[in-house]
Amino acid sequence: MKSFNIRSICLGGNDVEEVFDVECDNMHCIATVTSNAARLMDSVGYLCQLVSNPNTGARLRVSMDMIWDKPVDDAVAELDPPVTLQFCYEHFCGIYHVNPADNFPASSLKNFLNHDNIDFFGFEMNYKVQYLRRAHDLVVKNWFDIPSEARLSNPERFGDKVDLSLQEMVSMDFSREVFKGY
């Protein structure tokens, strides 16, 4: 099976932030990697401004991921915070390193995750939403698990496959392989 053509170039950075130009086949985005909570707050604030007028009916669809440094189950999610948070919208991706572990940016995320006009999409979303609620009293108001939505929208294709992984869905849709590190 053919792999994706992925390329990444560091555009610059400093002690708390690096910016990358990332291309996967013909898809392009700018990824900002930071451990600075103020920079995360700036990015979250920018996304909230895009839907600041509720009368327009505009909605943001943001992909969300949280990555732990070990396999995640209820016990791990109960005790250990994720090592990275990732929010992507269109051609922008913000990656926040939770370092040190007690530096989880709960106050920066509260209004963002609970925004009426922002929908969060991802894989294994239940673990992530439950972790945020239990560990930080954060509510993700509008969230969708991609495999669950795929099964609902196309039951003939996805059938009774309960736990489709990102790799399985990419393989089914693109006949290509993708590898995601933990």
From TrEMBL:
Highest taxon listed in the record's lineage: Eukaryota
InterPro entries for the chain: RNaseH-like_sf, RNaseH_sf
Name this polypeptide is given: 3'-5' exonuclease domain-containing protein
Species of origin: Salix suchowensis
Taxonomic path: Eukaryota, Viridiplantae, Streptophyta, Embryophyta, Tracheophyta
